[in-house]
Write a structure and sequence with these properties.
single chain; TIM Barrel; Malate Synthase G, Chain: A, Domain 4; 8-stranded parallel β-sheet; 3-stranded antiparallel β-sheet; globular
Length: 528
């Protein structure tokens, strides 16, 4: 018997999801695959160092047989045949009910980026998933009114997004050590909901974030195979969509699908994560890898078009779904004109993705579901997807994917201020235990904040000259931090956020993950 112990505080309804059987299931996964996970994380660091030393990246020569082979993934399963609109949000009762009644086809229950790893957040998310799958989820409004899910209503497929391989869950100890957060999130969900979802005709499905190559996808296959055997599920019934949001993974799209095997359902373009990875991987590769202001790096930038064109081509050649990037826009402000501009930008973005061959795309706000649906309806019509569109004309090279110098735009003081602001806002909210934060009409999540602080670090170390003629130095960044923080007012945990920002943005050595240094600060608080 594997020793497993809950080290977190008491959480309401925890007994429903932290049952002895569920904990034993998660502990067994950790015991079987924890060492392999740690080895892959070490290999990830080695791979990053190799890329940094070479200042270049290309496809792996040893996997040419996979790229050239004639193979396909299984057809889309029930619930994932039509994915033209996906909505992503936290596994929290209010947001979950909004998402499930939004008219979207898929609800991506974000257990990774939509909130801090407080134990009440982790456990509460599993309670919400359990209730959502069984349609017993209840939302209580500020007026005290209860809103329930209709048993006979058509609801989106429920697809959780667990945390990445790199994160530990310090509230659940297996043999005295923190369990992999990914195994906690995926394991508890599958234990409680996989059979229920199969019986209801949709699922179980997962979104896999942060993969840096096919070996990490292969570990997920082993985990999902083991879960199916332990839970007596049909082989290949758990289907997974991988987020391609790192540069190394962009060079291994065929290999990732192949490694997932009969669990593969598709790939998704994670734009902010991809920009963050691009900066992180090539942060010391010289001026040709220095991006302009992130606001200037739109989806039409040549290197991003190369990345998304290749994703569609690879997916459709293999029979897998290609899902576009999530629109982070948050409409509903007090300015109707600004609101309409937001919708117009999202409309244009989704229309381009549909025309490029994507089978669907994502939004972060219920009001944008009709906008996304209209764009894909115009291209798909009555068809559920466009898997038959092969894109043979696409011929993307490594130089295309890494053409940072070809991205138009300037490096400005306003861009530096924007990076500082979004990261400070996110860290302050994260440390205060809040799930999401919006800034200037956009949802800020971990990927956005990662991209912001990574760019600040790179600009400092490359001595970037701004439009004002100033050179980006640590002193300039600290001045901007002071100015931005003063404008944010009495924001909860702002002082802690400032200290953490300077730690991760101004350190001599680049911290690979923004939130890892923040865990100790976060978990010091009572009730974590």
């Amino acid at each position: 018997m594997v020793d497993v112990r809950v080290a977190g505080p008491a959480v309401e309804r925890a007994e429903e999801v932290l049952t002895p059987e569920a904990l034993a299931f998660v502990a067994d996964l950790q015991a079987r695959f924890g060492a392999q996970r740690e080895a892959l994380l070490a290999a990830r660091a080695t791979r990053r160092a190799e890329i940094a030393a070479a200042r270049w990246l290309d496809v792996r020569p040893g996997t040419a047989g996979v790229r050239d082979g004639d193979w396909r993934v299984p057809p889309p399963p029930p619930g994932l045949v039509d994915r033209r609109v996906e909505i992503t949000g936290p596994a929290e009762p209010g947001a979950a009910v909004d998402a499930l009644t939004s008219g979207a086809d898929v609800w991506v229950a974000d257990l990774a980026d939509a909130g801090p790893p407080l134990w009440r957040t982790v456990v509460g998310g599993q309670v919400v998933l359990r209730d959502a799958v069984r349609r017993t989820l209840v939302r209580t409004t500020s007026e005290g009114r209860e809103q329930r899910l209709a048993e006979d209503a058509a609801l989106p497929a429920v697809v959780p997004r667990p945390r990445g391989w790199h994160l530990p869950e310090r509230h659940l100890l297996v043999e005295g050590r923190p369990c992999a957060a990914a195994l906690v999130d995926a394991g508890l969900h599958l234990f409680h909901n996989a059979r229920e979802q199969l019986d209801r005709g949709s699922g179980p499905h997962l979104y896999l974030p942060g993969l840096e190559g096919h070996l990490e996808a292969a570990l997920w296959k082993l985990v999902l195979d083991a879960a199916e055997q332990a839970l007596d599920l049909p082989a290949g019934s758990i289907r997974a969509t991988a987020l391609i949001e790192t540069v190394p993974a962009a060079f291994e799209m065929d290999e990732v699908l192949h490694a997932l095997g009969d669990h593969a359902a598709g790939l998704t373009a994670g734009r902010q994560g991809y920009l963050s990875s691009l900066i992180t991987v090539f942060r010391e590769a010289g001026p040709r890898f220095v991006l302009p202001d992130r606001a200037a790096v739109t989806a039409t930038a040549p290197l991003l078009r190369a990345w998304t064109d290749r994703l569609v081509q690879v997916c459709h050649r293999r029979g897998a779904m290609a899902i576009g990037g999530r629109a982070a826009a948050v409409p509903g402000g007090r300015d109707p004109d600004a609101d309409e501009r937001t919708r117009a930008r999202v409309r244009e973005d989704k229309a381009r993705e549909a025309a490029d061959g994507f089978d669907g795309s994502g939004v972060a706000h219920p009001d944008l579901v009709p906008v996304c649906r209209a764009a894909f309806d115009a291209v798909l019509g009555d068809r559920p997807n466009q898997l038959d569109r092969q894109r043979p004309e696409v011929a993307v090279t490594a130089a295309d994917l890494l053409d940072v110098a070809g991205v138009p735009g300037e490096r400005t003081l306003a861009g530096l201020r924007a990076d500082v602001e979004v990261t400070l806002r996110y860290l302050a909210a994260w440390l205060a235990g809040h799930r999401v934060v919006a800034a200037h009409g956009l949802l800020v999540d971990a990927a956005t904040a990662e991209a912001g602080r990574s760019q600040v670090w790179q600009w400092v170390h490359e001595g970037v000259e701004l439009d004002t003629g100033e050179t980006v130095t640590a002193e300039l960044v600290r001045r901007v931090v002071d100015e931005v923080a003063a404008g944010l007012g009495a924001l909860e945990r702002l002082d802690d956020a400032r200290r953490l920002f300077e730690q991760v943005a101004l350190a001599d050595a680049f911290p690979d993950v923004l939130t890892l240094p923040a865990h100790d600060v976060l978990l010091d608080g009572a009730g974590a």
